[in-house]
Design a protein that fits this description.
Layout lengths: L7 H24 L7 H10 L14 E2 H8 L3 H13 L3 E6 L2 E6 L1 H25 L1 H20 L4
Antiparallel strand pairs: 1-3, 2-3
Helix pairs in contact: 1-5, 1-6, 5-6
């Protein structure tokens, strides 16, 4: 790979760094990039199935709502509302089993997530091309350090 090619690993690493660190400053503008899937739906899918970002195949694992609640600490009512909304959009499948209620990722949910991820990768690729990989890495590291210092100075 020559120095102008941008690898999938560069896109994965920098997408999270750019969107997370700048989310407060550019929140409204960043949301405008989410044309295939709502930002909250993307974050939910990444939390439930982290491998969705890198896998070429749809995650097949079913996840129980009780597990989601235990892992997230969110009230079950909030989880149920999110699951119902995403089920109504066809992004996930909500089913009852003998051990409780669970969700599975639908084919549509996987397709829409990947299409949205491609949009975000295009955005990040343009940023990397404008700034250069090394300069961007320095900026992200400096911003991460600043974020850490700002957090450490907050009262406990």
């Amino acid at each position: 790979m020559n120095s102008t090619e941008i690898s999938r690993e560069d896109l994965l690493r920098n997408t999270d760094a750019i969107l997370h660190v700048r989310e407060g400053v550019l929140k409204k503008k960043i949301k405008s990039l989410y044309t295939r899937m709502a930002i909250d739906d993307c974050y939910f899918l990444k939390q439930v199935w982290p491998e969705i970002r890198t896998s070429e195949e749809k995650p097949r694992e079913q996840v129980y709502l009780s597990t989601l609640q235990a892992n997230s600490g969110l009230p079950m009512s909030e989880i149920s509302q999110t699951v119902e909304r995403m089920n109504n959009k066809g992004l996930i499948i909500w089913e009852r089993g003998s051990s409780g209620t669970y969700i599975k990722l639908s084919d549509k949910g996987f397709r829409e997530f990947r299409a949205q991820q491609d949009i975000m990768f295009g955005y990040v690729e343009r940023i990397i091309r404008k700034l250069g990989k090394d300069h961007l890495r320095e900026i992200v590291a400096a911003l991460s350090e600043l974020e850490s210092v700002l957090e450490s100075e907050l009262p406990e």
